[in-house]
Amino acid sequence: MSLTLSNVSRVVDGETWIDDVNLSLEPGSFNVLLGRTLSGKTTLMRLMAGLDRPTSGKIMMNNVDVTGVPVRERNISMVYQQFINYPNMTVYENIASPLRLAKMSDQEIDRRVRETAEMLRIDPYLDRLPLQLSGGQQQRTAMARALVKDSQIILFDEPLVNLDYKLREELRQELRALFKARNCIAVYATTEPNEALALAGNTAVLHEGKLLQFGETAEVYHRPKDIITAEMFSEPPINVVPGRVSDTEVTFDDSVHFQLNSDLRPLEPGSYRFGVRASHIGLVPHSDDDLELPVRVDLAEISGSETFLHVHNPHFDLVLHLSGVHEYHVDQQIKVYFPTHKLYAFNEAGRLVHAPAGLGGR
Length: 362
Description:
Elements: E1 3-12, E2 15-25, E3 30-34, H1 41-49, E4 56-61, E5 64-65, E6 76-79, H2 91-101, H3 106-119, H4 135-147, E7 153-157, H5 165-180, E8 185-190, H6 193-199, E9 202-207, E10 210-216, H7 217-222, H8 227-232, E11 239-245, E12 249-252, E13 256-259, E14 270-276, E15 290-303, E16 306-313, E17 316-323, E18 333-339, E19 344-346, E20 352-354
Parallel strand pairs: 3-8, 3-9, 6-7, 7-8
Antiparallel strand pairs: 1-2, 1-4, 4-5, 9-10, 11-12, 11-14, 12-13, 14-19, 15-16, 15-18, 16-17, 19-20
Helix pairs in contact: 2-3, 2-4
């Protein structure tokens, strides 16, 4: 079962929610919709499911036009961020409910329910009511109900957002394993770039209802087509510094200069916006072409075993993503090291013109 959206738009009360999206998803693929809140992820999923109709464009399944086909006539399942289960039914009956609607035999229902529950590790709780379960077990129950009927398309609308970090990590790993053996299409919406990277597969980046880029996750991450995609596919967002290229050097804000290295030499002289990921800036040099920058600390934000260090140069701000706990006080003067061989270059229109070599993707 393939799924194709051709020039799909959705306009509500004069406001464009989805803007001319073209997207093709293949059987057996795991696809992430990555975008900020209100970027159009849920709207796009509702169109795929048949819960809403597009204002224009076509939705095809296996080359058959299903644009006007209602959700009940599509073989689709959906898992939401809320733990949506029937509160007065046991876990067993919650999972069995779509199979009973399909009028399957009791024997087949029992086989599928127990097999799916075991796969999601909720088989010990089949006789319990949803409110007797933890949040993770409740979401596993909702996922089991979506998986049990062998839908051709399964949609996950930020399903792990209400769970704690460790549970999210655990369920992400389980999802990847579950779909390796299936030939359905999985679509998973998230606001978190790290979640897209962890799930791998393909990633579609959405912004203000537009599809900016779609492809293998590693390719989109390492070769973002534009500066918005690069910012959205980085946590924290990629650092962006305006600069100019001459025949011999690069200048940032008319203040910081370095010699044009072999990676950047193909760039034509002119104005660019240069991007560097927060994880690529360090406190010690790692190569001969690292640029030393004196900076002032604005904030040291410690998160678990990581530190997000916000610093200020007289001409621009940077954020560093450091492993380990690093304690600094506000206004402390330090030096950071900027790897010039890991720079992205975007033209003045924001389109990618140079990506660092050897960072994966094609």
